[in-house]
């Protein structure tokens, strides 16, 4: 019989494609992932993953076992939610996931302010453009640009997000500025791939610039940002991200790109004290942070000593 906990490491490698990325995703060391994965394979008696030049790939057995491992993960997560759903303690750790591009400009200052008010509640911020599985227990709260599709999840709108098409000053100087959206086909663009390939911005760009030359490809919003800053081409970005980096908005804002920002959680956790405290705080304080969504400066985080003395 294998150690059930080793399935966690197998799933992390299956999702991330490497032991290094898997270690970062579940906050352990790379040798730990390698050791536990090897122990699982030894218990099973067959290889579950194979090393390739680009990372790890599942063997045929690994592919066959993957859905069953996910089912075990979801069952454990369901058990954990039931155990904590009625929790009344505003202490401990709360895992919150959000897209990378949103973390530094919006969520990090919010979390800093939250920690001032709730010093006994630690927020573990998971910054990734991959949509973590809330039902599978990968996080308790997610900040997302669109409503959840699963009936087991509930969403709470906290803000509107405005987007523009950006380019660097050097790109605009070399290639000019498109006067109409239809002219995007005459320019170079940055394509969205990987974790951001199915985003609303990616779908919009594929439709609006179907014949444009793809100058670079990126699998994260920060990667898209870096490519635009390099002068490689144009791309849609949240105004909170693009304007803060000194980029040129060639179309601002684009109504079709406007989206809503939601706090998403599993329905079983709505009454959890930690989840409720965080969501209520963000819903109240987001008013002060809404200028960030237009690329303006963030408000100051309240002084810890002054806040505690109130």
Describe this structure as you would to a colleague.
The chain has helices at residues 6-16, 19-26, 30-44, 60-84, 100-117, 169-175, 200-208, 221-229, 239-242, 273-289, 304-309, and strands at 49-52, 55-58, 92-98, 121-127, 141-144, 153-161, 163-167, 188-192, 213-218, 235-238, 248-251, 259-266. It is globular. The strands form 4 sheets. The chain has a 5-stranded mixed beta sheet with strand order 4-3-5-12-6, with helices on one face. It has a 3-stranded antiparallel beta sheet with strand order 10-7-11. It has 310 residues and is α/β, with parallel strands linked by helices.
Keywords:
310 residues; alpha/beta; Arc Repressor Mutant, subunit A; D-Maltodextrin-Binding Protein, domain 2; five-stranded mixed β-sheet; 11 helices; 12 strands; 22% strand; globular; disordered C terminus
Number of domains: 3
What is the radius of gyration computed over CA atoms, rounded to a whole number of angstroms?
22 Å
**SS-derived structural category:** alpha/beta
Order of helices and strands: HHHEEHEHEEEEHEHEHEHEEHH
Task: Please tally the β strands and state the result.
Answer: 12
Low-confidence stretches: 298-310
CATH architecture verdict of the largest domain: 3-Layer(aba) Sandwich
Strand content: 15-25%
Shape: globular
Largest sheet: 5 strands, mixed
Per CATH, the superfamily of the largest domain is: Periplasmic binding protein-like II
CATH secondary-structure class of the largest domain: Alpha Beta
Q: What distance separates the N and C termini?
A: 56 Å
Helix content: 40-55%
Strand order of the largest sheet: 4-3-5-12-6
Question: Helix segment count?
Answer: 11
């Amino acid at each position: 019989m294998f150690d059930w906990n080793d399935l966690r490491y197998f799933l992390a490698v299956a999702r991330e494609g490497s032991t290094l990325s898997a270690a970062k995703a579940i906050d352990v060391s790379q040798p730990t992932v390698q050791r536990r994965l090897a122990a699982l394979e030894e218990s099973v008696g067959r290889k579950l993953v194979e090393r390739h030049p680009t990372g790890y790939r599942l063997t045929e057995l690994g592919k066959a076992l993957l859905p069953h491992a996910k089912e075990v993960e979801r069952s454990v997560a369901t058990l954990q939610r039931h155990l904590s759903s009625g929790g009344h303690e505003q202490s401990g750790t709360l895992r919150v996931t959000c897209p990378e591009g949103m973390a530094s400009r919006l969520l990090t200052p919010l979390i800093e302010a939250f920690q001032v008010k709730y010093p006994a509640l630690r927020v573990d911020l998971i910054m990734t453009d991959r949509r973590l599985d809330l039902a599978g227990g990968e996080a308790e709260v997610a900040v997302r640009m669109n409503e959840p599709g699963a009936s087991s999840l509930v969403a709470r709108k906290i803000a509107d997000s405005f987007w523009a098409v950006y380019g660097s000053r050097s790109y605009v100087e070399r290639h000019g500025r498109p006067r109409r959206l239809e002219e995007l086909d005459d320019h170079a663009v940055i394509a969205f791939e990987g974790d951001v390939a199915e985003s609303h911005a990616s779908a919009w760009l594929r439709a609006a610039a179907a014949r444009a030359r793809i100058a670079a490809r990126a699998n994260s919003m920060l990667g898209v940002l870096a490519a635009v800053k390099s002068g490689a081409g144009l791309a849609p970005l949240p105004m909170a991200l693009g304007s803060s980096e000194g980029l040129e908005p060639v179309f601002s804002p684009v109504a079709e790109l406007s989206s809503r920002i939601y706090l998403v959680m599993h329905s079983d956790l709505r009454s959890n004290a930690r989840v409720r405290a965080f969501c209520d705080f963000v819903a109240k304080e987001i008013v002060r942070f809404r200028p960030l969504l237009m690329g303006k400066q963030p408000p100051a985080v309240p002084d810890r000593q002054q806040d505690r003395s109130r």
